[in-house]
Write a sequence for this structure.
């Protein structure tokens, strides 16, 4: 078992590992079983497995007690600590991974290594007991001045971030700050030729991280909070809201943020993204590690052909040759490799022109004689499988809205009041009353209020100059929604939470004003509405997709959501307009595939279906602003998509 095998196995379990710990495991005569033992005993709060976690004495004892080594004891087989699962990577089917298995530790005895790793892994770090929250001052338009703006935002800037993980994270601490006033300026990705061999994954060549650099949090990221169901390799808290119209929240950053902006957190974020997306692709192609391509000599046969190989990597660079071909640089945890896509292959080249930096793809092709370039014949995105089945058996209707912008002078209050009358069954039309009688859910995908200081001179277009007063007014409106309708509200970039995504739910001080039938979730959030799964995302990354993918426009926002779905990621490109907090888990990955993806943000309406997934971008309740006039954006206000939960039929209701 070599260094690459160890790093890959550890990465797939959601950890990182220091070079010192890798060396200790590799020197063992039974590295596979030692690594199994470490992963089954290390505390879940550990991010980086250090040398002190390589407990050789404990491992030696466990072989006798638990029979870890097959055939060497009369035990009951391999024993795994409670709450742990063995990594599939430790039972490799890859022919390029070394499978030697020697139970002896004689090579380490007398070397002094055992005495240096006696400390117990659980005592290698401490969890902070501090959970103090700072109550922010109320921010109103009179506070809108350059100095106050600068002082009201906390920028966490990693000291050294390579390649695509360059940039600052605004307010990426766990507690949201109501009234955050403007977006920070982010440094652009370098994508330079001097980038280390694995800029995404931080190995080799990544800076050494001291064992004391742990994230302090009173709650583990994967702690259970009742009604928990297993997700991936660990359990994450799942909220269940019972009642006539039940809601189950499967995935939500609220209460689970651990980000403080350290280097290794960026590395861990990209490793989690790669591990989960590559696993989807690996079910469709037989891929090998990039590092293995550099070890083998690829010679042409008598017919002049070479064997086709497949790799899976994250796109770290896209460039064009003088002849107009595309060259992709792909990275995985073992290294990087260049891929050529020729413009003579029209279909493949068109797909290459739509690829984005940082997305994970699979590539099949042949390698040149010098072993430095792959000539691609096929590119595979994670995409949604053709066999995805739509859930059935539910009933009633769900109303999907976003971008209400309460507090704005352009808020369309008359249309909004007509909408509330519709929900209460007080419409003049009998057809509208019939639809209203079937409404069970109202889902709001962000920007409930207009906020304060989101863009320059915003106070000139506000009717309510205090952000808390904006939410109080919004709460008044939502108290008119009938009690039997379950309301789910997710935040957006105008709301009083951190700007960095994923965003937690609105703070308790704001939520307290709303009625009991309102449930607050983060952004993004995967929820189940009585058997129908809906992924709620405000949709800020639509800006990046419009700017980067040919054919995607603000006028057809569902097309941008379709591009997300093909990549199985809500915000594929890192470090552009969307500020992404490097959490332990990538909350933007679309897995499992939901029945509905609901977005907003761009103030235009779009509905589309793709492989049994319904894509809905709801419009807005705000008329055209001065900023929208300057950028020639024409909003589509007061249009409401209503989805039948039984057959996913969509009706658009107009209230203007």
């Amino acid at each position: 078992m070599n260094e690459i095998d160890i790093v890959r196995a550890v990465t797939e379990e959601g950890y990182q590992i220091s070079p010192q710990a890798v060396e200790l495991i590799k020197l063992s005569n039974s590295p596979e079983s030692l690594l199994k033992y470490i992963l089954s005993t290390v505390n879940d709060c550990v991010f980086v497995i250090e040398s002190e976690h390589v407990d050789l004495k404990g491992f030696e004892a466990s072989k006798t007690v638990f029979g870890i080594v097959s055939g060497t004891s009369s035990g009951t087989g391999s024993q795994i600590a409670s709450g742990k699962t063995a990594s599939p990577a430790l039972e490799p089917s890859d022919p390029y991974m070394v499978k030697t298995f020697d139970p002896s530790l004689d090579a380490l005895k007398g070397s002094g290594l055992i005495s240096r790793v006696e400390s117990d892994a659980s005592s290698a770090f401490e969890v902070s007991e501090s959970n103090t929250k700072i109550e922010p001052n109320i921010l109103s338009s009179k506070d809108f001045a350059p100095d106050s703006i600068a002082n009201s935002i906390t920028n966490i800037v990693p000291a050294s971030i390579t390649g695509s993980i360059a940039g600052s994270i605004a307010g990426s601490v766990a507690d949201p700050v109501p009234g955050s006033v403007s977006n920070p300026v982010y440094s652009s990705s370098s994508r330079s030729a001097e980038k280390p061999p694995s800029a995404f994954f931080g190995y080799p060549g990544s800076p050494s991280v001291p064992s004391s650099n742990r994230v302090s949090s009173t709650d583990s990221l994967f702690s259970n909070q009742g009604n928990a169901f297993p997700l991936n390799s660990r359990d994450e808290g799942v909220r269940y809201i019972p009642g006539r119209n039940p809601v189950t929240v499967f995935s939500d950053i609220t209460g689970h943020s651990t980000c403080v902006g350290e280097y290794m957190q960026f590395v861990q974020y990209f490793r989690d993204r790669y591990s989960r997306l590559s696993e989807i692709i690996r079910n469709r192609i037989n891929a090998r590690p990039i590092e293995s391509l550099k070890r083998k000599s690829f010679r042409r046969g008598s017919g002049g052909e070479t064997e086709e190989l497949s790799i899976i990597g994250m796109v770290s660079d896209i460039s064009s040759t003088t002849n107009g071909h595309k060259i992709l640089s792909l990275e995985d945890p073992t290294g990087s490799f260049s891929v050529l896509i020729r413009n003579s292959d029209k279909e493949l080249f068109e797909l290459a022109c739509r690829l984005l930096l940082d997305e994970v793809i699979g590539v099949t092709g042949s390698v040149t004689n010098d072993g430095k370039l792959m000539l691609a014949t096929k590119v595979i995105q994670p995409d949604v499988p053709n066999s995805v089945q739509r859930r059935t058996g539910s009933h009633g209707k769900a109303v999907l809205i976003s971008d209400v912008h309460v507090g704005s002078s352009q808020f369309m209050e008359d249309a909004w009041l007509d909408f509330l009358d519709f929900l209460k069954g007080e419409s003049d039309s009998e057809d509208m009353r019939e639809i209203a009688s079937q409404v069970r859910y109202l889902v709001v995908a962000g920007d409930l209020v207009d906020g304060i200081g989101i863009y320059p001179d915003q106070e000139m277009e506000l009717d309510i100059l205090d952000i808390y007063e904006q939410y109080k007014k919004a709460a008044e409106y939502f108290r008119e929604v009938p009690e039997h309708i379950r309301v789910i509200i997710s935040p957006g970039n105008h709301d009083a939470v951190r700007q960095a995504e994923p965003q937690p739910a609105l703070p308790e001080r704001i939520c307290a004003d709303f009625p009991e039938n309102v449930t607050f979730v983060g952004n993004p959030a995967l929820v189940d509405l009585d058997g129908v799964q809906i992924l709620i995302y405000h949709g800020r990354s639509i800006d990046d997709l419009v700017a980067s993918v040919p054919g995607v426009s603000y006028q057809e926002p569902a097309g941008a959501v379709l591009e997300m779905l093909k990549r199985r990621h809500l915000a594929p490109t890192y470090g552009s307009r969307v500020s992404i907090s490097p959490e332990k888990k990538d909350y933007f990955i679309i897995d499992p595939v939901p029945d509905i993806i609901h977005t907003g943000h761009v103030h235009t309406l779009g509905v589309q279906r793709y492989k049994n997934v319904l894509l809905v971008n709801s419009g807005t309740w705000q008329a055209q602003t001065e900023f929208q006039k300057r950028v020639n954006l024409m909003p589509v206000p007061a249009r409401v998509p209503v989805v039948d939960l039984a057959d996913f039929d969509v009706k658009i209701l107009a209230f203007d």
Q: What stands out?
A: The two ends are 67 Å apart (CA to CA). The first helix runs from residue 3 to 12.
